[in-house]
Write a structure and sequence with these properties.
heterodimer, A: 88 residues, two-stranded antiparallel ribbon, 4 helices, B: 301 residues, four-stranded mixed sheet
Chain lengths: 88, 301
């Protein structure tokens, strides 16, 4: 599902300020269109993960940065590995 | 559902701080997004999260302790975890490939596959550009420096390694199209076409050629100059060399991969003078043995 900023805030249970901060950190990278930002279900799930990390796990912002960076790498590897048998 | 205290591994008398501590310890290990490939972790995490929903909230915990709600009363709503999306094609803005950047520089099949699957992504490397470059046969054996003029007016300097074979592809790293994001440039792939040579042909590492010799050279033998891709050499033709006699010039072939060179094979071909020569005619008509020799003996029926 594609949603605009307001819908995303409701769906992910985020405050506008928090979202602005996360966008600035590039923890969330929604599609940019002429009509504004487009958020997807994936962005909601990613926002939930960040929220889990921050509130439930007590990870601070620097920690979130590191975790997301490593997770993105991990998923990059998983994708490449997944693609491998198809390319062979 | 099992007892939430047991799930978190705390005593019913534990303080709320202890409950949170126990939850964090378990959740860090079990969070599905930190265990992308482990299905069991998700179920376990839901159980732990459910227990914490109940016990982490003082009011709910009291109601549970009082028996007002059961352990399932705080079941979390179903939600999709980030990992469910992360490996899909939509995850492009987030995917990061630096985890295997060092693998990609290799020339093996794995690196090629990594490069290929990477093209589909946001931070993708630039496209590889394909070119064809015709070179002379001699250049393919000796190696050469060529300049390839590009359609956009630019040029590429290409070093042809000695011993290159027709159809071989040279990769110029980073000379392809620019990539997106941090992807970097693609490579220029140059397929080299070795133009046929009227003297030389190549078979593996060996080079063959046909060399014309005169009648006196064939009959009496002698030293003659033979062209090779690396320059002329002198070869001794033995007495009585016939058309079809093949001589070997050791080490005058193409460079071998593991070092050394192939050989050049020179097939001799006796050539008579173009215009009829009265002296030769007179000699041959007086040559007795020449009349009794039948070169078609074997094929005569």
């Amino acid at each position: 599902m594609i949603m605009n900023k307001q819908e995303f805030l409701t769906c992910a249970g985020l405050q506008m300020q928090t979202l602005e901060l996360w966008l600035e950190q590039r923890w969330l990278i929604p599609d940019q269109t002429s009509a504004g930002m487009n958020f997807s279900d994936m962005d909601v799930a990613r926002a939930r993960l960040i929220r889990d990390l921050k509130t439930d796990f007590g990870v601070n912002d620097e920690g979130v940065d590191v975790i997301l960076y490593l997770l993105d790498q991990l998923h990059g590897l998983r994708r490449a590995l997944d693609q491998l048998p198809k390319d062979l | 559902m099992t007892n939430p205290y047991e799930v978190l591994g705390v005593a019913p008398t534990a303080s709320s701080a202890d409950v949170q501590k126990a939850y964090r310890k378990l959740a860090k290990k079990l969070h599905p997004d930190l265990n992308p490939g482990d299905k069991a972790a998700e179920d376990k995490f839901k159980e732990v999260a459910g227990a914490y929903d109940l016990l982490g909230d003082a009011e709910k915990r009291k109601r549970f302790d009082d028996g007002e709600i059961d352990a399932t009363g705080a079941e979390r709503p179903q939600h999709h975890f980030y990992r469910d999306f992360a490996t899909s094609d939509h995850a492009q803005p987030y995917t990061n490939n630096s985890g295997f950047a060092d693998f990609k520089d290799a020339d093996d099949a794995l690196a090629e596959l990594l490069r290929r699957s990477e093209r589909a992504r946001a931070n993708r490397r630039g496209q590889d550009l394909h070119y064809r470059l015709p070179i002379d046969f001699v250049e393919s054996i000796t190696g050469a420096n060529k300049r390839l003029t590009l359609p956009d007016g630019g040029s590429l300097d290409v070093t042809i390694p000695p011993g290159l074979v027709d159809g071989q592809i040279l990769r110029l790293r980073g000379r392809g199209e620019p990539g997106a994001g941090t992807g970097g440039h693609g490579d220029a792939l140059i397929e080299v076409e070795v133009l046929p040579d009227r003297r030389f042909t190549r078979e593996g590492d060996d080079i063959s050629m046909e060399l014309a010799i005169s009648l006196p050279e064939a009959v009496l033998g002698g030293r003659i100059r033979v062209p090779t891709p690396t320059g002329d050499v002198t070869m001794t033709v033995p007495k009585g060399s016939n058309t079809g006699t093949t001589m070997r010039l050791k080490g005058k072939g193409a460079p071998r991969r593991g070092g050394g060179h192939g050989d050049q094979f020179v097939k001799l071909k006796v050539v008579l003078p173009k215009s009829p020569d009265p002296e030769l005619e007179a000699f041959v008509s007086n040559w007795g043995k020449g009349k009794t020799f039948n070169p078609r003996e074997d094929s005569a029926s």
